[in-house]
């Protein structure tokens, strides 16, 4: 939704209705939010992560749920937090390690990740952080139905052709899922995410039981992880390969991705009143200055990360 700035009452409502913690990382704590039969997610940022918060907020607004990205339900800048649509608490990492997924389901999940990434790239956005704990799942009881897959966490996202300014080529072993050109400070492109996708597929095949499934997925993953971005396949090629493999290995046609439900809305009093009149010249100038400031701050944060 467009006008989702939380009032003070809204912030209190959100903080008082938080339930179990779903995850905690270097930048934020993610908690399940429940009210009147509804479920959502609260992402509360930790100290000194305002730049990442504003960056992710900007891209979530642009995505509007594309690629399974969480949709904005509410946002507060003080304290910095986002209320997001619930995309499930089961990460791909959890599913692979704990559920004993079938080979065919693992292959289908791989195809759905590619489909989600295709929607992100169609908007000119590169995720830059594709890995197994940034993919969430809803697993259907009927394995003839496609799983619902979502790509989350857009804190390092950028537009195609933009550089994050990393200087981490010497730490490639630590950040093994990030494309080498991105770690070296080069520009991010869809091929950067394809490298990360290849690493993801390589991890997934380790949990397959049958050799013919593993060997098939290994061929796809190996080409996607080529050190030279030009030699990597396009996302369309990867999607075609996985769809053909799913049909050949399982005799199951790759059905369309499942529809996601519309996000719930918080009680009306939770939102601040925002007028939707067109911005004046002075407001536009302010927005432009803010954009330049945000870009400078983001570069500063990336430089700090590079020195870690």
TrEMBL record:
<keyword id="KW-0808">Transferase</keyword>
<keyword id="KW-0418">Kinase</keyword>
<keyword id="KW-0723">Serine/threonine-protein kinase</keyword>
<comment type="similarity">
    <text>Belongs to the protein kinase superfamily.</text>
</comment>
<dbReference type="GO" id="GO:0005524">
    <property type="term" value="F:ATP binding"/>
</dbReference>
<feature type="binding site">
    <location>
        <position position="44"/>
    </location>
    <ligand>
        <name>ATP</name>
    </ligand>
</feature>
<dbReference type="InterPro" id="IPR051681">
    <property type="entry name" value="Ser/Thr_Kinases-Pseudokinases"/>
</dbReference>
<dbReference type="InterPro" id="IPR008271">
    <property type="entry name" value="Ser/Thr_kinase_AS"/>
</dbReference>
<dbReference type="GO" id="GO:0004674">
    <property type="term" value="F:protein serine/threonine kinase activity"/>
</dbReference>
<dbReference type="InterPro" id="IPR017441">
    <property type="entry name" value="Protein_kinase_ATP_BS"/>
</dbReference>
<dbReference type="Pfam" id="PF00069">
    <property type="entry name" value="Pkinase"/>
</dbReference>
<dbReference type="InterPro" id="IPR000719">
    <property type="entry name" value="Prot_kinase_dom"/>
</dbReference>
<keyword id="KW-0547">Nucleotide-binding</keyword>
<feature type="domain" description="Protein kinase">
    <location>
        <begin position="16"/>
        <end position="308"/>
    </location>
</feature>
<dbReference type="InterPro" id="IPR011009">
    <property type="entry name" value="Kinase-like_dom_sf"/>
</dbReference>
<keyword id="KW-0067">ATP-binding</keyword>
<protein>
    <submittedName>
        <fullName>Mitogen-activated protein kinase kinase kinase 11</fullName>
    </submittedName>
</protein>
